[in-house]
Amino acid sequence: MFKKRLKQVGAWLLAASLMLGSMQLPAKAAKVDTRTNLARSATATAFDQETNDYPPSKAIDGIREGKPSRWSSGVGTGPTWIQLAWTEPQTIKNVALFWEMRKAEDYKLEISDSGQDGSWETVFENHIPPARNESIILDKAVTAKYLRLYISKINAEDPDGGDTWGTVSLYEFEVYAEDPPDLRSEAQKIADSIQTPIIQPGDTKMAMPEVPDGVEMRFYTEYDQVIGQDGTIYTPVEDKEVKCTFEITCPPSEEEEEGSVATTVLTVLVPGQYQAEEWGNAKPAVIPELQEWHGDLGDYVAKTDSRIVVETDALSAAAEAFAEDYRDVMGMDISVAVGAKETVRAGDFYFALSSENNGLGKEGYTMDIGEAVLVEAEQATGAFWATRTILQILKQLNGSIPKGMVRDYPKYEVRGFSLDVGRKPFALDTLYEFAKNMSWYKMNSFQVHLSDNLIFHEDYPTLEEAAEQSYAGFRLESGVVNPDTGKSATSDDVYYTKDEFRAFIQESRVMGVDIVPEFDMPAHALPFTRAFPQYMTKKAGGGHRYLIEEINLEQEGATEWAQEIWADYFTGDNPVFDEEMTVHIGTDEY
Q1: CA-CA distance, 323 to 432, in Å (whole number)?
Q2: Residue 355 in 3-state DSSP?
Q3: Helix or strand or coil: residue 376?
Q4: Cβ(216)–Cβ(195) under 8 Å?
Q5: What Rg do the C-alpha atoms of the chain give, in angstroms?
Q6: Residue 423 phi/psi, 5° resolution?
Q7: What is the pLDDT of residue 118?
Q8: What contacts 425, CB < 8 A, 6 or more positions away?
Q9: How far apart, in Å, are the Cα atoms of 322 and each of 186, 334, 507?
Q10: H or E element: which one contains 221?
């Protein structure tokens, strides 16, 4: 079964690579602005300019970006101006300004028929930094021979964090007689029309926007634990803002041959069970920060006879791990017992699995902190993460926890770390320490890069010396042995037995950390090609003198041999890599 699946995956990847490499996707037809830019027929002058490289004429050259094509004012705090003049009066309805930086803090558009002092009439003004690309639509069209952008105040500090320099500059100063056309796609028009949903206290479902027939809408949130993808509301402890994404897909039509896709992101306020009280305890400092908190008064205090009570044996492994770490943090033992909530007494920690779907998922939990600490989760992983929160607070506050209510869950599904043990050997004890430290901070994915090699093969004078002496490592015991040499790809200096690594995977899982093993193939595979030289690539390529670390997939039997190496860890009654795992297959730089 494994070989069949691996062949299917390989065939799919190869087919996708060939398709993407050879296929030319048609360009989508974009709506364009067909209006006449009146500024192109004007004469541009300015009060000043930074240097002769940036004259006002460059603001009407039709180029909307690029530092060489802009007008830049003289250095100062203002005022300054740039002016357009025509030989005949022009109708003006829309002015587009393409600023290099948003340093103009007080500016206006003025018109005149003579361009003389005292003849200017203000038709638009703004007293805050502009948008980078600004479209100004006048309330009504005006007619004039002169149009001036008058900038009263320049702030040398760029509000977007750019250079500090006392000038303003425009890439382009465009003028039109008509309103700007609506260049939005049909999907964007629908997305822009969506109003922020209003959720009332007690609501259990968020009303979804209606879209026209034939239009598809997909909905996502940053916190499924508060608003599910079906709109279900899981009431937070206190009011919480959630970013919601609405993705609109319109089908092909006469106007849009390929259809269109657009998104809008709206921030939705979800009312909580409680309102924040000034007198309540502040949220405890935890890494990562607690998602939801409602503070009460007073503190929970651990006692010498505190216990860990679990509702079910399914939480016993998490409880035992908690007890061990509690001993390290508090300097005293704590017992573990199975019991009902009614048996809990002051000072105890109680853990239970919820029979309801509260939106918390695999890793979320609630915690009610009073005279005892009551934890509820939908799965054991969530209960274990609660123990990390408890321990972090106990360690900081010398055995106490502020009373209050917690509803906590991850923002990101994968919170990972990768370690290359192929090129630099690490003892398995060190990997355990990495996993334990990750668990302390609720990181849940530890990618162990088990095979690789140093890449500077050109340092060796011959291919044979490089193949023999370049450092390479594969850290797992392997049952695939070269019959001619009696050797496998397993490293001689540091390696982990199958039993050791299987135990590491399973014990890390109890700590909430999933181990993601990676074998790097078909490149960076010198540990394998050295042990099985018949599958080694023995030629130059890609700027390298030797490609000895690449599997020669043209060699008959190479793919089946690679599959056999993988299958060694997937097969048997007690495989090293079980069905719960994610496995990384490398594919680096081939």
Answers
A1: 18
A2: coil
A3: strand
A4: no
A5: 33
A6: -85, -20
A7: 95
A8: 473, 475, 491, 493, 494
A9: 55, 9, 13
A10: strand 216-221
8-state DSSP, 210: P
Is residue 143 within 8 A of residue 14, CB to CB? The reply is no
pTM of the predicted structure, to 2 decimals? 0.77
* Number of other residues whose CB lies within 10 A of the CB of residue 547: 20
The listed range with the strongest mean pLDDT (5-14, 28-37, 54-63) is 54-63
Which residues contact residue 292 at a Cβ distance below 8 angstroms, ignoring those fewer than 6 apart? 236, 237, 238, 240, 272, 405, 406, 407, 408
DSSP of 150-196, one letter per residue?
Answer: EEEEE-SS-TTS----S--EEEEEEEESSPPP----HHHHHHHHPPP
Number of H helices, E strands in the chain: 9, 23
Look over the chain and give the mean of its residue pLDDT values, rounded to a whole number.
92
Provide the pLDDT for residue 456: 76
> Could you tell me whether strands 133-154 and 514-521 are parallel, antiparallel, or unpaired per DSSP bridges?
unpaired
Query: What CA dihedral angle connects 99, 102, 106 and 107, to 10 degrees?
Result: 10
Provide mean pLDDT across the span 321-348. 96
Angle at 461 between CA 459 and CA 465, to 5 degrees: 90
> Backbone dihedral region of 542: left (phi > 0), alpha (psi from -120 to 50 degrees) or beta?
left
Contact yes or no for 528/521 (Cβ under 8 A): yes
Are 232 and 157 in contact, with CB atoms under 8 Å apart? no
**pLDDT tens figures, 454-465:** 877 777 888 888
Residue with tokens 């100062």: 76
* Secondary structure class of 438 (helix, strand, coil): helix
What are the CA-CA distances from residue 205 to residues 97, 248, 351 (Å)?
A: 44, 21, 29
Q: What confidence tens digit (pLDDT) does each residue in 158-176 have?
A: 999 989 999 999 999 999 9
**Strand-strand pairing, 307-310 and 349-353:** parallel
pLDDT-based confidence at 30, cuts 50/70/90?
Answer: low
Taking the C-alpha atoms of residue 528 and residue 549, their distance in angstroms, rounded to an integer, is: 8
**Pairing label, strands 240-250, 216-221:** antiparallel
d(CA 505, CA 443) in angstroms, rounded, equals: 15
DSSP-derived secondary structure for 26-53: PPPPPP---S--GGGGSEEEES--SSTT
User: Residue 23 has what DSSP assignment?
Assistant: P
Residue 512 in 3-state DSSP?
A: coil
Q: What is the pLDDT of residues 350-360, one digit of tens each?
A: 999 998 889 99
The Cα–Cα gap between 427 and 31 comes to 60
